Amino acid sequence: EAQVTQNPRYLITVTGKKLTVTCSQNMNHEYMSWYRQDPGLGLRQIYYSMNVEVTDKGDVPEGYKVSRKEKRNFPLILESPSPNQTSLYFCASSLSIGGAGYGYTFGSGTRLTVV
Amino acid sequence: AQKITQTQPGMFVQEKEAVTLDCTYDTSDQSYGLFWYKQPSSGEMIFLIYQGSYDEQNATEGRYSLNFQKARKSANLVISASQLGDSAMYFCAMREGGSGAGSYQLTFGKGTKLSVIP
To answer: Residue B103 is nearest to which of A45, A97, A103, comparing CB atoms?
Structure first.
């Protein structure tokens, strides 16, 4: 089944404790992206990757890191989480950056709480 | 400036009735794509329907149709014969063509919460 797999689904952590949210896709998609969703703000892009070893900042990158060492994986790293990073996070992938017709396949989401 | 505007934070509709969720967009690109996603209370994002800027006919997918008015830059979602399972958040999104920053992301509106009343 074609899918984007995120783990974990739920995570509660303490301020300052490094964490990684994993994302993997099995569709050989070139393009992957991370979004965060907050009430009243919709979804906002954190980082995206156009291919292996090619990443760039989205609209809200502060406090996050990403890496793309393999085509299928795109982990999101919070080196020192803070309470304002409490949010619902989505990983998404798309066949290509080219062409407006390429929508996203989304993962199931990771609900992160930082206390 | 917002690229995607959804002016209805919340909507109610009677079961079996039709409902229109509004979406306006802003872009100077000639090539772009418009998407609608559904997010039920469980949280996942479910793709519903797509409209390309060059498509001459309005997109339809089952009970979903997209009322695309290019000159007015609107892409309203119409749900016919509403069901209780349609209660969810609905997001309009746009992806611009070309090689600019807008092609690297889906830009989302803030969403409309639809509640279907029995």
So the answer is: A97
Amino acid A98 reads: G
| pLDDT tens digits along A24-36 | 999 999 899 999 9
- DSSP assignment of A97-115 equals SSSTT---EE---EEEEE-
Contact A109 B110 (CB under 8 A): no
* Cβ count within 10 A of residue A97: 19
Query: What is the tens place of the pLDDT at every residue in A45-99?
Result: 999 998 899 999 999 999 999 999 999 999 999 999 999 999 999 999 988 765 6
A99 contact residues in B (CB cutoff 8 A): 33, 97
